Amino acid sequence: MIVLGVETSCDETAVAIVEDGKKILADVVYSQIDIHKLYGGVVPEIASRKHIAKIISVFDEAFKQAGKTASDIDLVAVTTHPGLIGSLLVGINAAYAFSLANSIPCIGVDHIYGHIYANYVEADFKFPTLALVVSGGHTELVLMRDHYDFSVLGETMDDAVGEAYDKVARVMGLPYPGGVMVDNLACEYKREPLYHLPIYDSDDYNFSFSGVKSAVLNLLNKCHMKGEDVNFHALSYAFQDTVTNVLVKKTVKAALEYNVKQVIVAGGVAANKGLRARLSDAIRKLDSVELVFPKFRYCTDNAVMIAVAGYFQKLTSDKQQS
Description:
Layout: E1 2-7, E2 12-19, E3 23-31, H1 33-36, H2 44-66, E4 75-81, H3 85-102, E5 106-110, H4 111-117, E6 129-134, E7 139-146, E8 149-155, H5 161-171, H6 179-188, H7 210-226, H8 232-257, E9 262-266, H9 273-284, E10 290-292, H10 304-321
C-alpha cells in the first residue's frame, strides 16, 4: 500500500509518500521557522497563508522525489487534529481535493498518533508498548496493546513540557525557538547544581509544568531585584534536571506496572539531549525493555509520520470490518 501523507497542523507544510508503513519514497517539509522567529512564536494567520502559498509546490516535489504519479497512490492520509485550525484546513482541503480528483480514499489522522508512529520507521512495535508523548502542545503517557489501540494513562494538567521549555527560554531572554537553547545550555553545565526548583509530582501518571515555569520566573525576578547575576547555564540545568526527572520517573513506573516490552518517545521534545540521556540510562536498567527514539528529523512535524499512522489506521479499520 502506497500512502500519501499530508501535514499542516502548525508551521510546517509537509507531504510524504510511504510504502507499506516503512519504506519512505518521498519526504518534503517546508518550514516557516525563520519567519516566526521575528515574532517570538508562531503567528496562526501568517502560518495559514504560508501553507496556502507552498502546499502545491510541496505536493509536486514529493511526487518528483518518489518518481510516482497520482495513479500509484492507494490512500491519502491527512492530519485533521489537533493543531491550528487555519493551518489544518489548508492541508485537509488539499488532501481531500486530491483524493476526490483522483478517486483515492482519504482518511483523517490524529496528529499525536502520527508522532507515535514516527517511531515505526526506526523499529517495529513490540506490544505492549508505552509511548511517552512530549511536544509543544502535549505531554502524555499512552499504552498500546496493538496497532491503533491507544489508552491514555496520564496527561498534562496545564502546560505541555515543550511549551514550558519555550516559556522558560523566553523569560531568560533566549530567542525563539528557545527550548533547544535551554537544552544546549543545560548539557554544557558540568558543575555542582546551583539552583533547585520545585515541581508537581504525584502517584498517578499526570503531569504539571506550570509550577516549575513559575519558579524560574520568580527566581529571575528575585535576582533582578537584588541586583544579582543569573547563571543561565546553571538555571537551564536546574530546569531540565527537574523536568526530565519527572518524565523519566513516571515512564519507568508505567513500564513496570504494565509489563511493556518497549518504550517509544514521540514529539518535538524527543530530540532533547538531556531527556534522551536520562531515559536511556533508566530503561537500560530494566529487563527486556527496548527503548526507541525517532530520528531527529521525525521528532518535529512531518508527513512521513502521518502516512505511517494512516497506513495502520486503514489496516486496523479493514480488519475490524472483515
